[in-house]
Every structure is written in C-alpha cells, then in structure tokens.
Amino acid sequence: MTAEETENKSLDELQIEQLEHSDPHRTEQYKSISKGEKLVSIQNLSMVYKTDESETVAIQDFNLDVMKGELVSIIGPSGCGKTTILRAIAGLLKPTGGRIMIGNKECIGSGPDRSMVFQDFALFPWRSVRKNVEFGLEIAGVPKEERKERAMRYLKAVGLENFANSRVHELSGGMKQRVGIARAMITKPDVILMDEPFGSLDAQTRNIMQASLVNMLAKTDTTVIFVTHSVDEAVYLSDRIVVLTKRPAHIKEIVKVPWLRPRDRSSPECTAMRKEILGELEKENVMN
Amino acid sequence: MYQFKYDKHNKYHRAVQQTAIVIVSLVIFVEAWWVLSILANTPAVPTPGETWDALVNLVNNGDTVTDISLWSYIGASLGTFLKGFLLALLVAVPLGLILGTFNTLNEFATPIIEILRPIAPIAWAPILILAINYTIGPILVVFIGIFFPLLTNVVFGVSKIDSSLLDAAKTLGASRAQIFVKVMVPSTVPYIMNGVKVGLGIGWMCIVAAELYAPTLAGIGYFLSEQATLGYWPGAFAAIIVIAVLGLLTTGVAEYVHKFIAKRMGMDV
C-alpha cells in the first residue's frame, strides 16, 4: 500500500516531490510512482472538437497510469477537459488520438468494466431502487433470483436495503447517489469512474458521502478515477491527485497523498496540502 | 347558531366547494339555455325540459324510428372508435420511436407528414367511407385523427430523452438494442400517454363526424343525423348530450390511466 511505503519519508521530502512542476515532455516522471500493479494506462490521449469554424483542442497527449486499488482524483480549472478525459475512458467519447489500456487490453467503446457514477445520478426513474441496481446484471443476462440477491447485498452495503422497492424520486440526493454507486459497483468493474459524483449535493451531505465512500472502498480493492472541482474532496479521498492546467489540459503536477484514510479534513497536513493545490489552481485561473 | 367556516386546507371542505361550484355553473348554463330557447322561439332550439324528456325517452326506448336501443348505438360508436384508436396506437408508436431515433428517416418522413397533417381528418370521410366501406371507413377516419398528434408526441418524447440515462446504460454494458428497449421506450411512455390523451379527444370528434356520413344505422352520430333530418330537435339535442357525456368519459379514463402510469413510473409530464 502506498501509505506504508511513504511513511518513512519526511513530510518535507514529500512536499518537495509534490512541488516539482510538470515538464510536458518528460511524461516518464509522472507515470506511477508506487510499485503497485498498473491497471489503467492512458496513453497520448487527444480530443479535438471540430466545428464549422474552428477546432477546439480539449485534450492533447495526456498520459496517466493508474494503479490497481488506488483512488486517483483529477482536478483542474473549469473547462479544462477533465470530464472529457473521464468520458473518453468510459467510452462515451471517441478520442481523436491515443488509447486507453486496462491491463493488456485496449478499451474500445463503453462497457461494464468501466462503469460510471454521474453528477446528476442518472438513475432510471421508472425503475425501483433495486431494479436500478440490478440493471447491469440484467444486461449481462444474470438470472432473476441471483440478480435480486446480489442487488440486495449491494444495497445493504450502501445502507439502503430498506428502500429496495422505493421509487427513485422518493430518495434524497445522497441516497440517490448511493444507489448510483451500488449500480456501478455491482458489475465488478475494473475501474469505477466518478464524474463529480457529489457535486449536486449540499456541503454537509457531501462530507457524509465522502466518508461513506471511503468506508465502501476500504472493503474492496476497487480502482477509482474521480473527477472533482473540490480540492478539499480530493485531499480527503485520494491516493494521488492529478492537477491539470487550463485547456488543453496537461498535467501540472501529481500530488501524492500518503496518509491513511479516513482522514481529518482539518488536520495541519490536509490543510497545508489543500492550500498548496488551491494556490496552483489559482495560478492557472489567472494566467492567460 | 352554528357558524360554518370554510377551511381551505380541509379536503372535505374543498370537495364540497368544488361540487357546489360545478352545480351552480351547470344550473346557470341550463337557465341561460332555457332563456335562449324561449327567446329564439323556434322548434330548432328546444328547451332544456324538452331535451330532458327526449333524453329519458332515448334511454328507455331507444330510437323510436329504427327501434334500435341507445346502448346499441353507443356500443357501435365506441367499438369503431376503439378500433381506430388501437390501430393508431399500433402504427404511430413504433413509427414514432423509429423516426425519433433515426434522424435521416425522420427528415424523409417530415415533408410527407407535414403535408398530410393539416388535412382535417373528417375531410377524408367522404372518400374513406363512400369509396371503401361503411364499417372500415369510420375506423380509418378515427385512425387518421389520432395518428398525427400521437406520432408527433412520440417523436418529441424521443428527443426529450435524458442523455445521461443513455450514458448510464452504455457504461453498464447495454447494447444498442438493449438501450432501445430498456431505456428509450420507458422514457418515452409519458409522452406517448400525452399523445394518447390528445388523440382520444380528437378521435372522439372524428367518430361522431364520420358517422354523420355513414348511412349505416349505427352509432350515436348516425342517430343525431337522423333526428335532425326528421326535424326531431329535442332528440338531436339529446344526442348531443350523450356525445358530450361519452367524450368526458373517454378523456376521464385517459386522464386516469395517464396519472396511474406517471405515478408508477415515477415520471412527470
């Protein structure tokens, strides 16, 4: 585990590592630091949007490796392309260049091995809570009884077993997202993609959900790629934080977050890291 | 003395108030009609009293000219109406779903549809009824009446599908066919229901009008036409009342079904 490896380094050394800024041509430096097993490899990803008048380069030669079991946050100024990266990994967008590998196979299109949790929950309103969670299994052809049983297990894991037959609109925002998470996890994906999953929730619910997520992930070794606007959230949740520049997004820096979870948001380390990253983001937003 | 205070939060008070309003409104209407009838002083505008007598007679004895009962007439009208409705449903819904999904097809179909749509369904009645057949003709007139609004609503419904639901289905591994059946169709149901509601209203108007053309001894529209031709005005007005009531019932049922489905599906529209 990352935490054990870095426990011996002093805080100073870690901070020095974190403060080294990216040189876009030396992408080697930003490939995975830990000696863990590489799971997701994003290679030279590019996304160019063409309109009648012009071309917009959303992403250009983006490279990132994600280790199995780690939670990587992607954070950056608004509009930098972080959601585009995530959607490209999910297969919802076809990148104009580069490729994405999971293990040894290249990702083509979308699939349940890379399921996604959405900011607006994207739950099917005509289905009950349980049937929403069952959706991925239905697609895969899992028989009815088994589907039901597995869905109930996952609902129990997110604390919603009493709401199995409720309608989606009867749930609060936090509960809906828990259903969304259960639905994404039930297909046992290689990596879960989360697109600002707590962005629609109020601040208190958001903090509660972050703690829930940490809890849920502690029980499995799921790999998560997490896009967020909130530095606080990234510091609380991640093993590594990928900070992007403005569009077209390059990696500005990758910050390692070595502390064990659950973390104390108000601890001096977390506060210092938050301040540092916010400072970097501010620079991105001001620079022309 | 006991003072009655109206509490707008009490649902019984509200119900009573609503009923009272409806009754008063109807009474005013009937009174106005009565006055109008006396002023007009022509047999063509019977008084509510005469109309009521004719209505009671119609219910009890049916059509005294042809010896057919009222229920038989109603059954014939409703039967034709339902057949036209089902046909429209079977054609417009799948077609709407396909056109909504495949843009190119939609572009091809739109000019044809836009030319045909503004033609009042009843304009087709002479051709359909007199050229084809008295049974199938009216069914087709109803079909045309319901088809266009239903089709429009279905196509619109497809365009309104929440794209993040499609994304969610894709990231859970759904194939295109599975997305169509498991996400697109259920998403469109509220819009289909809306189209059905609109279509039913128009369809009911069509059946009555179509029956005026079909000398088939069937249907309440036929009865209306017969009474008017023979100059039995109270009977004609009684027929109109029957038509109005049936229209209310069909729309009422449609409304109820719509609410039921909307609730069950947890969607609004």
Would you kindly provide a written description of the structure presented here, covering whatever features stand out?
The complex is a heterodimer of chains A (288) and B (269). Chain A has 288 residues and is of the alpha/beta class. Chain A is 36% helix and 22% strand. Chain A has helices at residues 2-6, 11-19, 82-90, 129-140, 144-157, 173-185, 203-218, 231-237, 268-286, and strands at residues 38-50, 55-67, 71-75, 97-102, 105-106, 116-117, 191-195, 223-228, 240-244, 251-256. In chain A, β9 and β10 form a beta hairpin. The longest helix of chain A is centred in the C-terminal third of the chain and has 19 residues, at 268-286. Chain A is globular, with a radius of gyration of 19 Å. Chain A starts with a helix and ends with a helix. Chain B is mainly alpha-helical and 269 residues long. Chain B has two domains: 1-41; 47-264, Orthogonal Bundle (MetI-like fold), CATH 1.10.3720. Chain B has helices at 11-40, 48-61, 70-101, 103-116, 125-132, 136-159, 163-171, 176-213, 220-230, 233-265. In chain B, α5 packs across α6 (136-159). Chain B starts with 10 loop residues before the first helix and ends with a helix. The model of chain B has no long low-confidence stretch (mean pLDDT 87). The A-B interface holds A 90-92, 110-112, 114-116, 118, 120, 122-127, 135-136, 138-140, 167-169, 183-184, 187, 193 and B 162, 164-165, 167-175, 178, 182-183, 186-187, 189, 264-267.
